[in-house]
Amino acid sequence: MGWNSTLVIANDYIHDISEDDQFGSKISKAISMVHHGEPVRIDGSRAVLVETHHNSHIVPVMVGGNNGIKMPCSPVKPEADPLDMLKAMADAMGYTLRKKPQRKG
To answer: Cα separation of 77 and 68, whole Å?
Structure first.
């Protein structure tokens, strides 16, 4: 039981963050706001709270450019293998995933 959240921290600001006694409170506030679906920026570019989800399934997130994007995906159990996750993502976007045929010779 419980919830997980994906937080992206811009490492360039790690010293500023370590000096900020209120950073934990800012993360807590962002978690309460992220339920609306859009990532929530924390202190400008220092961090972004991407998403929050129940811990009974895995949520794929792509990270880069000081941001994160929650990928569309059908619920996948934590014990699922990466191929099952990829198939669920493809399905959620209206695609099917199939293995390439083996090359001859």
So the answer is: 21
CA distance 94 to 33: 29
In the numeric block, which tokens belong to residue 80?
Answer: 């699922």
Do 87 and 73 meet the contact criterion of CB atoms below 8 Å apart?
no
Sign of CA dihedral 9, 15, 16, 17: positive
pLDDT tens digits, 11-58:
999 999 999 999 999 999 999 888 767 899 999 889 999 999 989 988
Q: pTM value? A: 0.82
Q: How many CB atoms lie within 10 A of CB 26?
A: 17
CA 59 to chain centre: 6
Question: Would you say 40 and 33 are in contact if contact means Cβ atoms under 8 Å apart?
Answer: yes
pLDDT value of position 90: 93
Tokens of 38: 């859009």
